[in-house]
Amino acid sequence: MSADLFISYAWTSTAHRDWVRLLASQLHLIGYAVKIDEAVDYGSSLHGFMREVTEAAHVLLIVDENYVDRANKKPESGVGIETKWISRAFMEKPGTWLSVVFIRNPDRKLPNWLNDHNPKGFDFNSSPESNEFPGAVQIDEIWRWIEGLPADKAHAVPLSLVRKRAARLERIDARRDPALYANPALKDRVTFRYKDHAHYTVGYGEYEFKINFSGCSYDSVYVYKDSGLKAVGLITSPNFDPLSVESFLTPGRAVAPSVAQKVVLLNPQGSLCVITIDEVQREVNAAEYVPEHVTFTYEVLVNH
Asked: What's 167's DSSP letter?
């Protein structure tokens, strides 16, 4: 299996070799298979190794001034041998196959064979006097090169697609708007997609109730006191007296009303609200998607 990325560099110094290993590690952490030449035996296995290099999806040259010198003047060195193979393969590869990293090379010198091609490359030169050091931005640039993305992010995506993505984000943000999950009226009928938000709020002030639902069965839901209610209770009598509705309250966490059943809610201010389950809809994953939801009628009991 060929490597995603082969890195060629000169053994300029221990510090330089450590830096290249660090760069290779960062690219490996992103998820690429990286091959570097530090363990190369330039002997009988050279042909097989260089075949692996030329078959790599991408080649990255770490071009410091020593690399340039070895590529140009020392054909028997490791860099010189690699240069011969890579330059031959380069002529048969697409222009995106090879790029360079400039490090400790402020004049951005290139090996002679690359001068006519003048790859833009990635500038990893640091300027300590200006407190400027390469890092995440350059790693991102290398990633964009490997993946064939435009280097200029400002013009990387057509305006129509930018707008489409913005609209997508706006729709999600709008679905998080608490106003979509609240009704200040004291009585009404509402539909709530309870997977979209933690609770639905009815009423306001001392008559506010935050109602939390989840699915139970095809025709029932759970109603919880988890969102700040003091108690909930299933109304088991069809002909209950509103004046004594609080008798249905229980200390439990939840009740499970079916369609047409009623639930009484107690808020922290001691006010009561009665809700009636009108419809329960489970999620339908079909050509026409139907989200899970509950439709309920509620009435805040102002005079109780």
From this structure: H
pTM of the model: 0.59
Q: At what angle do helices 136-146 and 14-30 cross, to 10 degrees?
A: 60
Tens digits of per-residue pLDDT, 208-219?
999 999 999 999
Q: CA dihedral in degrees (273, 174, 294, 243; nearest 10)?
A: 0
Segment 222-241, tens digit of pLDDT: 999 998 999 999 999 988 88
Name the residue ranges covered by the structural domains of the chain: 5-159, 175-301
161: left (phi over 0), alpha (psi -120 to 50) or beta: alpha
Does residue 41 surpass a pLDDT of 80?
A: no
Q: Assign residue 228 a region: left if phi > 0, alpha if psi is -120 to 50, beta otherwise? A: left
What CATH fold (topology level) applies to the domain 5-159?
A: Rossmann fold (3.40.50)
Sign of the C-alpha dihedral computed for residues 188, 193, 196 and 199 taken in this order: positive
CB atoms within 10 A of CB 29: 10
